[in-house]
Amino acid sequence: MDTIRAIARLAAFMDEQSTPIDFARRRSLDYAGILPRDEWVEICRAENVKPGGDRRWQSARAHLYALVSGNRLSRAPFAEERGFPSFAELGQFRSGLPGAVAEALASSAGDFLRALGVDEPVSWLPAPEVVGRLADVADAGERSWATARPARAAVMPARAVAAYSAGVSVREIAIKHGVARQTAGRVLADEGVETRRGRRRTVIDPEWLRRRHLDDRHTIPEIAVELGVTMTTINRHLETAGIPRRARGAASRATAIRIDPRAGNSPLLRRILVGQDAAQRAERFLVVARHVTMTAAAREIGVTLSILATQMKRLGADAGGSLITRAQRGQPLTLTELGAAVRRELQVVLGLSEDVGRESSPAGCP
Questions:
Q1: How far apart are CA 305 and CA 317, in angstroms?
Q2: Whole-angstrom Cα distance, residue 78 to residue 302?
């Protein structure tokens, strides 16, 4: 009976009160750029804990994805990546998550939402008093992970020296070994390698940033990937320069059904060049068609592989079928018959000649 009464109280409360979160919008956001690897390493460095390998990082991403989106884990755009946890593994990660790291992750999630133009709390629950009970959840005690220092044993000096000599930065070496940048620098110094002192300060031209974000309509996660910094850094530069964050979220109905005039009378292009960011997806498809792997195309464009793969999947759905056969071991990326047709028509309306696309087309493309 107590349970039934509690459910009834909660139902009455929800009927009277509006929630501060638009859960329908949350479920439709693009989460491919949530918690990049370097941001996770930076959080762990600040809290002096070991970031671990792929599994711990992917568990942190899955934790934020489930917390922010409310979707099932299997719907995460990075669910097929190496190290992605099962539901049980995510539960174990959360049960051992130190409080300071959990707070830092929540702050990262807040930055992620603001970057998408969503001004809402990261999560929300009614107070226990709503159902007629006092908060009586037992304190699990302070949870901790192994501290990051001393961590020199995790860095293999010979490999670090070889990597640095080959042009890999100290920061990249630190990320690969799961240690702080300063630790990697000390290991190199012990081996007699002279490195640049201090942290490289990221210099971002305010006018370039304004054009990139407002005129070129690049998202904050995309700009962060392009510059090799975190979304927090981009948000800070936007605020310092007084640049308004471009509104994101669900498109208006007028935008969602608007057909790009360049589609003309082509039935195929009228399915593709419609809705928000349709032209961007089309232009990026032509970039993909010039490369032998999706990874190489994502690197040229300056976005993550997950974001680009999601856009190509959306483009294929609009066109009516798969456009790309992804590169596999020993085999380059190729276009399907439909993909080749889409490329030919897009090259015409976007002002590109057939020769441009054919010049460096993936093997096997028509």
A1: 18
A2: 18
Contact 181/170 with Cβ under 8 angstroms? yes
- Per-residue model confidence (pLDDT) at position 249: 47
- How far apart, in Å, do the first and last CA atoms of the chain sit? 69
Q: At residue 342, does pLDDT exceed 80?
A: yes
Q: How far is CA 144 from CA 41, 56, 107, in A?
A: 17, 14, 19
Residue 89: what are its φ and ψ, rounded to 5°? -65, -35
C-alpha span between 113 and 104 (Å, rounded): 14
CB 110 within 8 A of CB 122: yes
The string of pLDDT tens digits covering residues 44-100 is 877 778 888 888 999 999 999 999 998 889 999 999 998 899 989 999 999 888 888
Higher-scoring residue by pLDDT: 158, 108: 108
Cβ density class 182-221: b for 16+ within 10 Å, e for less = ebbbbbbeeeeeeeeeeeeeeebeeeebbebbeeeebbbb
| Residue the block writes with tokens 């109905």 | 253
Residue with tokens 């979707």: 71
Bridge partners of 274? 259
Domain boundaries, given as residue ranges, for the chain: 2-131, 152-190, 206-241, 253-359
Q: Residue 264's closest CA among 322, 335, 350?
A: 350
Note the Cα 173 to chain centre separation in Å.
Answer: 22
According to CATH, what is the number of the domain 253-359?
Answer: 1.10.10.10
Pairing of strands 324-325, 334-335: antiparallel
Structure tokens at 82: 């190496």
Q: How confident is the model at residue 364 (pLDDT cuts 50, 70, 90)?
A: very low
Calculate the alpha carbon distances from 222 to 21, 212, 304, 305 in Å: 25, 10, 7, 11
- Both tokens of 205, joined, read 């031209």
d(CA 211, CA 114): 19
Residue 56 CB neighbours (<10 A): 19
